[in-house]
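RECORD TYPE: protein structure
NAME: acireductone dioxygenase (Fe(2+)-requiring)
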Amino acid sequence: MVEAWYMDESQEDQRAPHRQRPNRAVSLEQLRRLGVVYRRLDADNYETDPCLKEIRRAENYSWMDIVTIHKDKLPNYEEKIKTFYEEHLHLDDEIRYILEGSGYFDVRDKDDKWIRISMEKGDMITLPAGIYHRFTLDENNYVKAMRLFVGEPVWTAYNRPADDFPARKQYMKFLAEEAH
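PREDICTED:
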């Protein structure tokens, strides 16, 4: 089961858990109110999993690929890791399904505080368009993930500040509506 918590302010190794003391856990319901959708799937059978097939059909995820993030598998590994960890947003939802390994997605809450979401094999997450976020490997330094898209993939990340994009404005409107 996925675990999430508020991060400490440490600037040390981004791959460390960075839990506050005492730990401030974040529930799936709190993530949902930020627009983050979590699912648990059978990663051992992703090629034939009827649940994944139904999610792809229902959400119109027509395109997918698989990426391995490890120093021996990803060209320009060090540069990519730094890029993934820069705070950014996308104009479309970001959907990731962890097939092997583990890592962290960090998202901003409504008060602009970082929440760290620990992802491991079998976890699928959807980050809404317009949410500020970042990704890093954990101390295991390895993840294999499926990336899903509606239509053709768009890889463009807009580093913060990117508040003038319609996707960000729509996301902020969503947050305001969730608060009521």
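COMMENT: The chain has one domain: 1-170.
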